[in-house]
Write the structure tokens for this entry.
Amino acid sequence: MTRRAAARKFLETTDWHSAEVTPLAGDASNRTYFRLLRSGHAPAVLMDSPPEKGEDVRPFVSVARHLTSHGLSAPRILASDEAEGFLILEDLGDALYARVLEQSPAREEELYVAAIEAIVELHSASPLPVAPYDAQTMGPLAGLAAQWYAGQPERAAELSAATQKALKAQEEPERVLALRDYHAENLLWLPNRSGAARVGLLDFQDARIGQRTYDLASLLKDARRDVSPATQAAATVAFASLTGISRETLLASMAAQSAQRNLRILGVFARLSLHFGKTHYIDLIPRVWRNLQGDLSHPALSRLRGTVMRMLPEPTPHLLNDLKARCGTIPSLA
């Protein structure tokens, strides 16, 4: 049975069996999304996560229910077939932060401070029993930059070890639920709601237990849009004020978390092109590199900076064109 037929079979078991189905933009995964429209009712979203392609909706369901139980605006689960990989979700609309700010750039600080309030609200809740995202786990993921972006898999372990050491040096004792993809393409502005609920949350199925500053780094050092220095400053002040964390600790911790994240993203974006043929991710690499350089400028990361600058080349036009030219030419992920 095709996925289209399986989706239709699932819909026939729900109140949306007669709904008009229209496609929505997808993401970097194998998931696809559709808007469901039926007369006289609020729209909904169909998530298609094919298990045969390694997708599993159960983490999404678990995290979504956790978030909504604490008053945060994740989509409510309206119907599900977890075994087949189908969910019908509350439709939170199209007002992604990225779109709102394209139209109203002057609102950036307002929206980002609201996103900080949502992070802090999340951190006040008891975390879910999910896997840790600690230095031991994060270090090897930074090594993807050596393997895929620099094309030096034999040096991945060296970069992993250096990153792990930097993370350990800045590790805080407090552990929280980190959503891990907390940025302007995954946040929705919901002005009719109040407090932390004004921020709609998407793409959180990979949440792990990690540091308080991980989602802060994800938000402010965005791979897809530049966040103004003024907004970054206002957001970090808000975070420090709401959490009681000192500015010195905050900036050092965020630099370490962000450096690991940007190293991982360099490797992932290169892999998405070289293995999966998705060349548009190469165009985002220069911003990721600039973010990484900002992270590594923190004095606490001087040793990691030395390792990175010896190992990873600057994303010159020649290097980026070479990555694009080799699109889809590496068939194995090993």
DSSP finds 13 helices and nine strands in the chain. The chain has a mean pLDDT of 95. The beta strands are 20-24, 32-37, 44-48, 77-81, 86-90, 176-178, 187-189, 199-201, 208-210.
